[in-house]
Amino acid sequence: MTDLEKAAYTLIRRGSARSRAELARKLGVSRPTASTAAEGLLKMGLIRECGKGKSTGGTAPILLSAAAELAGCVGIDLGYTDRMSAVLLNSAGDIVDRKERTFDPQDLQSIAENTKKLVQSLSAGKKILGVAVALSAIIDEKTGAVTSSVNPLFRDGGIGDLLEKNLACPVFTANRSRAAAISEAFGGAADQEEDFALISLGKSVGAAFWCGGKLFRGSGAAAGEIRNLRTASGERLEQVLAPEKTADARREEILDICTDALSQVIDIMDLNLLILSGRFADFGEGFSAALEERLVAAGRPARVRPARFGRFSAARGSAFRMGEIFIPCP
């Protein structure tokens, strides 16, 4: 597969280019060149023609989509303190099945055993490319090594090797906030948006910034670490939104904390869309709308949306990204 075909496949799978004409514009190449790339992908069985789009005056465009029947990926989010969230994606990036399972995040053996059980129950005889794991950690994207994590068990960088040994298949590790941002950017609550911030709540609190249609990584791949923001009480955001603190807190208290902290994020990044992922789903229906009202009243008129994939957003995003790196062979 050529580099151009890989780029074309990614755009089609993400829904960013649905026709040969869109593909040419997104790739910055001529229509014949884009058509050649599309024909190559069709011959390989990686994409399908799926009907005709609306005509803008000429011939109606033939629509393109990623093939869904090839090997998919299992994605698992290990960023919670009380449960693993896991999904099975098909090769087009759609969720086929999802499950949750309790585990002990402070016990490597528990992590390994429960991850294996989840993978076995989700795949159930289906062919998969591998397992993608979302972690509350800063990860070297070139090597996959964990360079820093709120979970001490992940800091030695051995979690990927341990899971690969137990699962006997390739394992891909990803930062959970960035994974959730990818999930919501393509098919999620921020589908095809150019700029937004995803705020992820799990054991800790993190963020990912989507700027100009792509992730902002920073010079050391550590952008988005907002857990040390100081709140009105003087405490760090990570402290006041910890699971043990929010378990018994009134919803109004949580809204006050989020309004204060996320106003700072809006001021710094000048974004008008926030996506709330992970444990925010536990605060009840309407939490995002209530927070948006608070932000507007505070002079920060940002849109606030719940993650479409809720607690499974990071799991889906990590698996979605793995499906772009390990492209299935028909």
Could you explain how this protein is built, in words?
- This protein has 330 residues and is of the alpha/beta class.
- Helix 1 crosses helix 3 (31-44).
- The two termini are 13 Å apart.
- Helices cover 36% and strands 23% of the residues.
- The longest helix has 19 residues, at 251-269.
- The protein has three domains: 3-66, Arc Repressor Mutant, subunit A (Orthogonal Bundle); 72-179 and 313-325, 2-Layer Sandwich (Nucleotidyltransferase, domain 5), CATH 3.30.420.40; 193-308, ATPase, nucleotide binding domain (Nucleotidyltransferase, domain 5), CATH 3.30.420.40.
Concise synopsis of the structure shown:
The longest helix has 19 residues, at 251-269.
Radius of gyration: 20 Å
Strand content: 15-25%
| Total domains | 3
Number of DSSP strand runs = 14
Q: What's the helix count? A: 11
State the separation between the terminal residues, measured CA to CA.
Answer: 13 Å
**Overall SS class:** alpha/beta
Query: H/E order of the elements?
Result: HHHEEEEEHEEEHEHEEEHHHEHEH
Major sheet, described briefly?
A: 5 strands, mixed
Give the helix proportion (percent range): 25-40%
